[in-house]
Amino acid sequence: MAIRVGRWDCFVCGHIGNLGPETHCTSCGSSRPKDVVFYLPEDAKIVEDKEEIAKSKAGADWVCSYCDGHNKIDASICSTCGNDKSEKEDKQLEVRNLMLDEVPNSGARGISRSKETPKKLDKKAGFWKYILGASGLGGLFIWLFSFSTTIDVPVVEMYWERQIEVLEYKQVQEEEWKLPSEATSVESFQAVHHYRKDITGYRTESRTVQKKVGTRRVVCGQKDQGNGYFEDVYCNEPIYESVQEEYEAPIYVETPIYKTKYRYNIYRWLPNQPLMASGNNERVNWPSVPSEITNNPKKFKTGEQIEKYLFWVKTHKDEKVKYDVKDADTFKELYVGKKLKAEKSTIFGTYKGLKSELFK
Ligand SMILES: [Zn+2]
Ligand SMILES: [Zn+2]
Fold first, then answer.
1. How far does the centroid of ligand 1 lie from the alpha carbon of residue 126, in Å?
2. Which of 50-65 are b and which e, b meaning 16 or more Cβ less than 10 Å from the residue's Cβ?
3. Ligand 1 centroid to 349 CA: how many Å?
4. Looking at the domain assignment, is residue 161 inside a domain?
5. Is 340 within 8 Å of 152 (Cβ atoms)?
6. 26 C-alpha to center of ligand 1: Å?
7. Closest ligand to 27 CA?
8. 208 and 279 co-located in one domain
9. Dihedral of the CA atoms 262, 267, 268, 272 (nearest 10)?
10. How far is the CA of 82 from the centre of ligand 2 (A)?
11. Are 44 and 81 spatial neighbours (Cβ–Cβ below 8 Å)?
12. Cα of 239 to ligand 2 centre, how many Å?
């Protein structure tokens, strides 16, 4: 049950690391902040002295209701203003049980006991601390990158492609467990439909399992005594051991189950060579459908239409950047040599993309 000496920081003069039990700053003499947060540095001193251990357990310090000054539990008058201790009016500092990850280890990161904000805060320093601290160096770069300059970039290359799927009604051979009514049967035969898994017996095997064999006491938190001292809080933690365990493992045998399968001829619409058109300018068109297809509706039909529109711009850095256009009308507005509005980073000079939402 180790007891450690906490620390606190003085808001008045900025002195860091006053010893927890001290009610007044060793540098300027001010009382601890009203809502002081004690913290426990990594190398906090462990209290060995019997008398000091007793003091740490005496109880939380009291806060004077006249001046907010802090006082040890056995003080009968306020060490700051001299008023008498009043059991009725004066409050005691809170005694708190903290999980290990909740124990502050420095003053700066301490969680205040109340919503009171430190009085003095340099606004400019606070801003940079926010930019660099909250969002990191990456955040600073993103912020600087957000400044843009508009530039003109020419379209240097265009490509479009339009495709029409062609389907042909063809006879094919298929195999299934059922014969479709419109199909012509070729043959039927017995085939393995699935396997049945049966347990035929058991075999003794061994495996490693984790077994709880007891519990141990571990330090899982700290009790903030409200007087500058922290005391270890213990929890029970289970102890596991690897043990070999025997168990009955089933032995399976797989039996094939046969069913009648059909091989048959059937007519299906199947994809044929698609019709294609493409070009390197804004004059887009659909491929013409040959009369062989239009005159034989029982044998041929057209299917899905696929269209693709791409263009490239040359940036101020002489790099070619590819863009995808979703609809033909937007693409038709472009031509090689046309200048589009784009953005570059004012600070870094990097190309940031076209301004128009149509090309995002
Ligand atoms: Zn001070
Ligand atoms: Zn007082």
1. 22
2. eeeeebbeebbbbbbe
3. 50
4. yes
5. yes
6. 7
7. 1
8. no
9. 130
10. 6
11. no
12. 51
Distance 98 CA to ligand 2 centre (A): 29
Residue with tokens 């993309």: 353
Q: Residue 86 CA: which ligand is closest? A: 2
Tell me how many helices (H) and strands (E) the chain has.
5, 15
Residue with tokens 């077994």: 211
Report the separation in Å between the CA atom of 15 and the middle of ligand 1, taken as the mean of its atom positions.
5
Domain count, the chain: 3
315 and 261 in a common domain: no
Could you identify the residue written with the tokens 């300027």? 28
Amino acid at 153: V
Kindly state whether residues 39 and 102 are assigned to the same domain. Answer: yes
Range of the domain at 22: 1-114
Is there a domain that residue 24 lies in?
Answer: yes
Tell me, in angstroms, the distance from the centre of ligand 2 to residue 285's CA. Answer: 91
Quote the ligand 1 centre to 132 CA distance (angstroms).
28
Decide: pTM greater than 0.70: no
Query: Residue 33 C-alpha to ligand 1 middle, in angstroms?
Result: 10
Could you read off the pLDDT tens digit of each residue along the chain, which spans 360 residues? 799 999 999 999 999 999 999 999 999 999 999 889 999 999 999 999 999 999 999 999 999 999 999 999 999 999 999 999 988 888 999 999 999 999 998 886 444 444 344 444 444 555 555 555 555 677 788 888 889 999 999 999 999 999 999 999 999 999 999 999 999 999 999 999 999 999 999 999 999 999 999 999 999 999 999 999 999 999 999 999 999 999 999 999 999 999 999 999 999 999 999 999 999 999 999 999 999 999 999 999 999 999 999 999 999 999 999 999 989 999 999 999 999 999 999 999 999 999 987 776
